[in-house]
Amino acid sequence: MALRSPELRFAASTGLGALSRPSRLAPSPLAALASPRRRRRGPSPSPSPSPSDSNPSTASAGDADGPEWKKVSAKRFGYKESMIPDEAWNVLHQLRSRGYDVYLVGGCVRDLIMKKIPKDFDIITTADLRQVKDTFVGSAVIVGRRFPIVHVHDNNSIVEVSSFNTYVRGSTGNQMPTSKSPHCSKNDYLRWKNCQGRDFTINGLMFNPYSEKIYDYLGGIEDIKKAKVRTVIPAATSFHEDCARILRAIRIAARLGFSFPKETAYYVRNLACSVARLDKGRLLMEVNYMLAYGSAEASLRLLWRFGLLEHLLPFQV
């Protein structure tokens, strides 16, 4: 049977077709967790009242207006404490012992759901960056200008820690909501608002390793099930705000064997020329990162398919 789209043909040619669409023979174990999402053109509305972390047993899917969000037990995905390395646990424990809330966030949560070994473990906390640095005296440094984070050095490893109090400098903020439902819990609002600033829904997941709850405000679990790389806000706005997201979209799709929804695919192709505006140092970093970790061939195929190679090759030469 002929494949219907270039993205599916790519997935089949790289041996990743099984991830590009659900199997008809064996439904994904994630299928039971996915619920219909309403089509949206902007950020999801802030959550309605929800149970707090202290009472996870009462959590339910669909406690928000608009796109339904979930608080899901990580055990449904086969999570075990041993999946998190000692270095990450050390950072989590020390921050939590000082009274700060801590979560794993981003790609590592996505990979844990997919039963993959995360390359990095990123942490977000209610502590500000100075408080994080003071917690790890002599082993932590604040890095980054556009989005400052803390690098905590532990046992020849680096654990990245960000803060709920940090926002991207230079962001237009056109799509970032500023109000919340009047009865929304403070914790839910902090998590939800931070997730709204993420690049893709599958990277907008938070995990509390102490309550073993995964927070999905953006439909990221459903997009993992569907093997889709979808922007959090409309793709045109997202890529105009940070054109490096185009390259990250390619990298993630290549590494995971995912494809793009129509809107995302359209703007990856039509805004491809914008990557030439990136600072050369950042462009080199993104390209090198893309071609590493065993996904170079898949990345090059997607770069060619979406018209990005012609904009990257002059730089590489």
UniProtKB/TrEMBL annotation:
Entry keywords, A to Z: Nucleotide-binding, RNA-binding, Transferase
tRNA nucleotidyltransferase/poly(A) polymerase RNA and SrmB- binding domain location: 257-315
Span of domain Poly A polymerase head: 102-230
Biological process terms in GO annotation: tRNA 3'-terminal CCA addition
Pfam families, A to Z: PolyA_pol (PF01743), PolyA_pol_RNAbd (PF12627)
Bias type Low complexity, positions: 19-35, 51-61
GO molecular function ontology, one term from the record: RNA binding
Top-level lineage group: Eukaryota
Region spans: Disordered: 19-68
InterPro entries associated with the record: NT_sf, PolA_pol_head_dom, PolyA_RNA-bd, tRNA_ntf/polyA_polymerase_I
Record keyword Heme present: no
Family label: Belongs to the tRNA nucleotidyltransferase/poly(A) polymerase family.
Name of the molecule in the record: Poly(A) polymerase
Organism, scientific name: Triticum urartu (Red wild einkorn)
Designated gene of the protein: LOC125537692
